[in-house]
Amino acid sequence: MSLTLLPLLQQLVLVLAAIVLFLSFVLLAQTRLISAIHAFAWQGGLVAAVTLVVAAAGQMPHLYFSAALTLALKALLIPWMLHRLTRRLKLERHTESLQSPTLVTMAAVALVIFSYWLVLPMIQAELTFTRNIVAVSLAVVLIGLLMMVFRTQAVAQVLGFMSMENGLFLAAVSATGGMPLVVELGVAFDVLVAMVLFGVFFLQIRESIDSLDVDRLNRLRETPGETGAEGQ
Amino acid sequence: MDHYLTLPGWGLAVFQSLLYIALAPLLVGWVRKVKARLQNRHGAPVLQAYRDLYKLLAKEARVAHTASPLFRAAPYIVFTATWMAAATVPLLVVDLPTAAIADIIVLVGLLALARVFLALAGMDVGTAFGGMGASREMMIGALAEPAMLMAVFTLTMTAHSTNLSSVIDHHLAEGFILRPSYLFALGGMVLVAIAETGRIPVDNPTTHLELTMIHEAMLLEYSGRHLALMEWAAQVKLLLYGTLIANVFLPWGIGRGMSAAALGVGLAVVLAKLAALGAGLAVGETVLAKMRLFRAPAFLNLALLLSLLGLLSHVILEVGA
């Protein structure tokens, strides 16, 4: 089925999904923590919008509830909690530059192509309009993973994790018309609890190593001076 | 395509090319006026750009004694190449013989030709600023060109043609379709256009501050009619990019056929679109500050990423199913 034959609402779904993918790139390359949180909030809002449009286009009323839940949780509550946390940790002006931003971006582009290649047999087997969003959502998941690998700042890693969840939700909505309500509520609650736990965790990390740069957790000893003292 | 190659068709093409050089200063004047109003200044009249060109054309052209013949020839080459590039972009009507014989890759090539001679002329006299401006211009050009070509390929993959007339025809035949790839290609193209025409945040068209200038640095040694031609070429380039964005991404209203009504409507619509784009450019230049030069690669990387995503989303979302 080519794009020209789709109704306008379904074209809108494709456009929104593409913007979700773009926001994943923004998240990946964003150096300012606060801006990254805003990008994450926008991504959550767009996923909610996709859900809303899918609900309207496919006559699936239970998706309205999912859309509302996603909007409340991913676009408002979690970004707000992250915001509060960064303020509390005094990280508002924190910037973190990637080692080689161009290389990481190109890796993300490669991941998009890889996920398309992975989904290709599935698209050819079954043809409904939202199937090809699966490639996009898989790419969002993989880019979230890439973000967790390349970012050394703990809050940024959590953002990567949360955007992975966005990708999974997008896949569920577009491929199968949403998960059962119980599962959805469970996942939403899990994400919320994870967020609270991350918050506690940040404070703990901060207290023990005085920074949120998780690369410093790799080191066993703080200073070479201590090593010498223990050796004696 | 061959049926456009008729005498009236060529007449129209010549008329449209003349319209390009006639309208280019008007667009610049309009952008300056809007920008001045946004900054609470009264601003020069919209026609000031014409008066500047007239003044420069009437003045004597002085050439440095170290300049080679290339320095004198460059303004004519730059102006002609930019003008020819502009002639291939449909302004009023779609079906033009110039568009039939030159596609969008030729357009990019002609602009590259103009850029090479501009940079050579900048280096010719041997002043420090000229060389500096030339090297900066080539850096930006080298980064902008891939992004531009990528955006162009997104368009051509949809229309199955690299010819601008067929691309626009294809869009008009298709009607209104939301394409994710076009959204990205449009974003990439706008960023490239800003970088290529030397607007804020990449270059500041009004500055003569040596640390920041790019385009102006190459023109420092020019005077009189040479300077007029160089500035005119830059104005035509701005109009070219504006028309490219307005007519390729939002082709509605462009004339088809050669009737006077089609021409009139085409002119009115394209003027409205360009006025809106110019106002948008002025707003953008007012709210943004100029970036450091070393941030320009990041800016153009974003353009490349947008174009690349356009290409990918075309393949993934629009062809796959």
What do you see in this structure?
- The complex is a heterodimer of chains A (about 230) and B (about 325).
- Chain A has one domain (about 5-230).
- Chain A has eight helices and no strands.
- Chain A has helices at about 10-30, 35-60, 60-90, 100-125, 135-150, 155-175, 180-210, 225-230.
- Mean pLDDT of chain A is about 85; it is low at about 225-230.
- The mean pLDDT of chain B is about 90.
- Chain B contains twelve helices and no strands.
- Chain B has one domain (about 1-320).
- Chain B has helices at about 5-40, 50-60, 70-85, 95-100, 105-125, 130-160, 165-175, 180-195, 215-220, 225-250, 260-285, 295-320.
- In chain B, helix 6 (about 130-160) packs parallel to helix 12 (about 295-320).
- In chain B, about 70% of the residues lie in helices and about 0% in strands.
- The interface between A and B is medium-sized, with 31 and 23 residues.
Structure at a glance:
The complex is a heterodimer of chains A (232) and B (321). With 232 residues, chain A is an all-alpha fold.
Q: Give the C-alpha Rg of chain B.
A: 19 Å
Helix proportion of chain A: over 70%
The poorly predicted ranges of chain A are 227-232
Our count of domains of chain A comes out at: 1
Q: Outline the biggest β-sheet of chain B.
A: none
- Could you give the count of β-strands of chain A? 0
Q: Give the helix tally of chain B.
A: 12
Q: Report strand % of chain A.
A: under 5%
User: Roughly how many Å apart are the termini of chain B?
Assistant: 31 Å
Structural shape of chain A:
globular
Question: What distance separates the N and C termini of chain A?
Answer: 74 Å
What would you call the structural class of chain A? mainly alpha
Helix content of chain B: over 70%
β-sheet strand percentage of chain B: under 5%
Name the chain pair whose interface involves the most residues: A-B, 31 and 23 residues
Main beta sheet strand tally, sense and closure of chain A = none
Count of alpha/pi helices of chain A: 8
Order of helices and strands of chain B: HHHHHHHHHHHH
What characteristic shape of chain B results from the CA principal axes?
Answer: globular
Mean pLDDT of chain B: 89
